[in-house]
User: What shape does this take?
Amino acid sequence: DSGSFRQEHALSFAARYGRTDERVVHHLSVANVISKSRWYLNNVPDRAETRSLKYRAEIGLDGSVASAGHVLNLLAERQLENFIGAYQPLTKRQQSSFAAEYRGNLADNLSLQFGLRHDLNTVYDDFTSWNAALSYQINDQIRLHASAGRARVLPTWSELYTVTSNFVGNP
Assistant: This one.
């Protein structure tokens, strides 16, 4: 329908401090995303805004980040979201996350990865997720890989509040 639309505007900045031949490399990013959408049933467009700040440190445990056989990543992230829609007053939620990930070469052809992340939410229950992976390189063309994990993805604003001719959000 010609009366329906979706627009998204994103602005982000990222910086890295340190070279990969150093033991520690710092990463910082800031982002702002504004989404607007209107479906033909709505006279007023929905508007969502997400602001995020992320910091990650890569630490070579046994040498520089580029050559280390064992690397530890530490992450801190803060995300603020606002939504206002045709059928929904201003709604806000925040999430702060902290994570650690280890990647290591255990033998010539065997590598391990393990990650742990804890999310603090203002709207939903706090949650801890994890993942683990093991990889074995048989030769240049074949690698065996196994992984497992548990995570949670928060619903999008559209999933919660959008109303169209064939879909009604589920707050």
User: Anything to note?
Assistant: The chain is about 5% helix and 65% strand. Residues 157-161 form the longest helix (5 residues). The helical segments are 157-161.
